[in-house]
Amino acid sequence: MPNMAWYYGLIAIGIIITAFALRRRRNLADWLTYFLFTTACSWVGESFILFVFHGYDYKPGIYRDLFANNILGHIIANSSYWAATAVAVMYYRTPARWIGVFSLGFMLTEVLFVRAGIYEQHWWRTWMTGICAFAFMLLMKMWYILLQNRTFAFPRIAVFWTIAWIMLQTPTSVLMLFDKQFFRVHWVENAYRDSTLFTGFVYHVFMASAVLLFMYVPKGWYWRLVPFVMLATTDTVLFHMGILQIAGNWNLIDLISIRAITLAVIYLLEHYSLREERVEGQETAR
What is the model's pTM? Predict the structure, then answer.
């Protein structure tokens, strides 16, 4: 638990930064959309470093398994500290020099975590974190400006693709931490890493694309039911193939119910948030 206290600190910092950001733009639906967008972008970037190339390890000390701890640390760091800072940068259109200062703050945090023994670097180095933090926050700021300009529909559509992906991926990651379900394709030996690689880089990428396709291209609300049918069918097939492995009191019906709720939240966010960022004609896709 002493290790975990440091990660609680990241959550506290994220809450403080979020309160500061909400002073600028009080619409909670918009904030949630931007928060999920920045979280998803940070998840994607770190997933390559952490789960594909194993550049470092988080050590919150909750689980015996190395990658279970990595998943927990990954969720906390990116869904609080990184995402909250990125949203604040977007809202305030922070100048590059201050983004540089924030990047130094991320580097300092990493140094403290390494010295406390709750984060271990392999081939990754702290200066890389500084470069990635600066590039990430600068990209988020530029994307926000593109959304506000309303010149092209693509920036807003891309936001909701990332949201669809993270909304599909998050229950999978959380359920793994409770040992309720895994997707085992045996690309690697570790079950947590194996499941993350398959769902995060293949399965939910494809399904998020399907969600966006049936949300924007065909006319008629009933087309939005197609991704649910696809998810329910594919999950059932993967379960009977032995790829989707379910344990404890969790079952396939529970998972399908989570899928339905997830899709409903995605559709509600698309409908009720970022209304000012819609370009002309985009509303006809609903």
Answer: 0.93
